[in-house]
Design goal:
The protein is of the alpha/beta class. It contains seven helices and 13 strands.
Amino acid sequence: MRILLTNDDGWSAVGIRELALALFAQGHELMIAAPEENMSCIGHALTLRRPLHARRVDVPGLEGVRAYAIDGTPADCVRLALGNLDFSPDVVVSGINDAPNIGTDAVYSGTVSAAVEGFMVDVPSVAVAKDSFDLDYMDEAAGYFAELLPELMRFFDDGPAVLNVNFPSVPRSEYRGIRTAPLQLQTYELRFDERLEEDGRIAYYVRPGKTTVPSGTEYTDERAVRDGFVVITPLTYDMTDYKRFDKAARLFERNV
């Protein structure tokens, strides 16, 4: 299988290297095209007001694998790899992110956005993350994903799509199984911490933390991964609110 690997943590991040090693060991043909620097939480941004540059890099243990550090966003990396770097993958795999992409995180995640970008240009795509802000068990998650990938590819039999996969932050031996679940809605801390700088300006610093929004959904991705399951969520970029589409039509449609 031909696999384009990318992420938002940067080309030298442990997660993408462990994932590349695991997939390479399975005999897949890889190309890495990932940001030069950490681009976490940049969402689906594209670089439009300056040129992009792709620098060939060497990834330890992956001699012979083409790898590029790109001075752009995760979505830029996917577009440049597919459009200019002469690689036609069977699937785009984005990750492994060393932080969860559960719930509303998916809206902000550069890792998820890179996968969505692949889907938008008709390439099956998978975003991968681990539910913690550390590197514990990253190699085990990567190995499990490499074994799971052929099964995930069956989801794309009827055409390109995007899957969001999150691993629990426990040893592989403690995985309880696999669940499919919808994204959990969450809210983030709104107020910034304020600090007075030497020049008199006020600096605003993001406060960490988010709150789960109560939901009638029986089982969400957040709950599943915290229960020890690998959780898979199909995603799409169509932002149409179909539940309220008819209401909008009733209120606003008219002939002049």
